[in-house]
Amino acid sequence: MNDDIQTVLYSEATIQAACERLGKQLTQVYRGKNPLVICVLKGAVPFMADLIKQMDIYMDIDFIDVSSYHGGTQSTGAIELVKDVDQDVSGREILLVDDIVDTGRTLAYLKDLFQDRGASSVRVCMLMDKPEARQMAEMQADYVGFNVPNEFLVGYGLDYQGKYRNLPYVGILKPEIYQG
Ligand SMILES: O=P(O)(O)OC[C@H]1O[C@H](OP(=O)(O)OP(=O)(O)O)[C@H](O)[C@@H]1O
Ligand code: HPA
Fold it and tell me: Which PANTHER family match (predicted)?
């Protein structure tokens, strides 16, 4: 699997340092607030696991699964709710945790969903922000690990056709992998 990678953009150590920095920041923001921290499946699993270990606060966690890429490199535009959260979000301070904001469509869908359900706040923590790909200009994350180039990335949760999520770093695939 590692042989399929052309370039490593963010090493394991660089990602862990970002988790530590974000975790400290979020500890200050949420101390005493008992937030509901929601992991956006599946891509955010490695980031969620590392981030929450760096947050020294009481919290609840939950999981939601929405999908728009269906395995390929282009957003299909239509967001599908595959699995909802288990908990009532009304009156809760929500922190959405995801691996990447790209076009912004997933984030727009999720913010609307939780605001409509009466959350008292909805903030967003993304490991990566790809600003050049944004189709919804107003969609910004509140806390971001890295601004990334406008390339299709894999690793640390990000997949191509369901694979590469388990790489401990983020990189770019060799072109021949896309060409089959
Ligand atoms: O800003 P956008 O263009 O909407 O893209 C961002 C979303 O795309 C990816 O999820 P995907 O829909 O591929 O599901 P996955 O996490 O299960 O891979 C990623 O994890 C984000 O949730
Ligand atoms: O760059 C990406 N790679 C994998 N999945 C994604 N979902 C949005 N952007 C990306």
Answer: HYPOXANTHINE PHOSPHORIBOSYLTRANSFERASE, HYPOXANTHINE-GUANINE PHOSPHORIBOSYLTRANSFERASE
**Hey, how many other C-beta atoms are within 10 angstroms of the C-beta on 59?**
15
pLDDT per residue as tens digits for the range 77-99: 789 899 999 999 999 999 999 99
Angstrom CA distances, 121 to 6, 24, 34, 35, 111, stand at 40, 20, 12, 9, 10
pTM, entire model: 0.96
Catalytic residue check, 142: no
Fold annotation for 13-149: Rossmann fold (3.40.50)
**Residue 69 beta carbon below 6 angstroms from any ligand 1 atom:** yes
CB atoms within 10 A of CB 123: 17
Q: What is the dihedral of CA 36, 46, 150, 66, to 10 degrees?
A: -50
Query: 137: CA distance to ligand 1 center in Å?
Result: 17
